[in-house]
Amino acid sequence: MGRSPCCHKEGLNKGAWTADEDKLLSDYIKSRGGGKWGKVPKETGIKRCWKSCRLRWLNYLRPDIKRGNITHDEEDLIIRLHKLLGNRWSLIAGRLPGRTDNEIKNYWNTILAKRQQNNEKSSIARVVDEACRNPDMGYQHQ
DNA sequence: AAGTCACGCAACCGCTTTGAT
DNA sequence: AATCAAAGCGGTTGCGTGACT
Q1: Between vectors from CA A4 to CA A94 and to CA A64, what angle results, nearest 5°?
Q2: Of A4, A78, A117, A134, whose CB is crowded by the most CB atoms within 10 A?
Q3: Residue A84 · residue A40 · CB < 8 Å
Q4: Is pLDDT above 80 for A23?
Q5: Which residues touch strand B (CB under 7 A)?
Q6: What's the Å distance between residue A103 CA and nucleotide B9 C1'?
């Protein structure tokens, strides 16, 4: 049910985005706004499926995106939110202005890998432990 | 200096959910 | 109320880069 047919069309570009594609997408979203992703490839001429366009915008082109260097506070919040919400990356990202679900997911997977390697009580483990004991963890419902 | 390995990030794939008809 | 298409989400993969031997 409901599999998006656009992603099965042949002749679509794959892999890394070019500067031209970025500009087309960025200009389009700025002038028309997001939401109707199905129209984006047709109206911009970008040879990508709508999913790729959406992902590119959300994870890379959005003007309010912060990139790199997740702060200690942000890391702390991610860990606490993950404890509460599980792998609901989009929800977690919603609590972290300027961060994307993909970025947080990648970051978490990196942390997990490190934690598995260390397998010892790290600062993260301590934070998680602390989070368990303090339910009012300073995040806000919207 | 060259080759190999490991890590991190960007992008893709497929399933689920939501909205329109 | 049922069906279908569009959109959203999370897991996984592939590529590029840097560190190490």
Answers
A1: 25
A2: A78
A3: no
A4: yes
A5: A 1-4, 7, 13-17, 48, 51-52, 55-56, 59-60, 67-68, 102-103, 105-107, 110, 113-114, 117
A6: 8
- Within 7 Å of a protein beta carbon, the nucleotides of strand B are 7-18
Determine whether domain A5-61 maps to CATH 1.10.10.60: yes
CB–CB of A99/A93 below 8 Å? yes
Tell the CATH topology of A72-133.
Arc Repressor Mutant, subunit A (1.10.10)
The confidence score (pLDDT) of residue A1 equals 38
Cα-Cα-Cα-Cα dihedral of A53, A58, A60, A64, to 10°? Answer: 140
User: Fold match between A5-61 and A72-133?
Assistant: yes
Structure letter (DSSP) for residue A64: T
Domain boundaries of chain A, sorted by first residue: 5-61, 72-133
Q: Letter for the amino acid at A82?
A: H
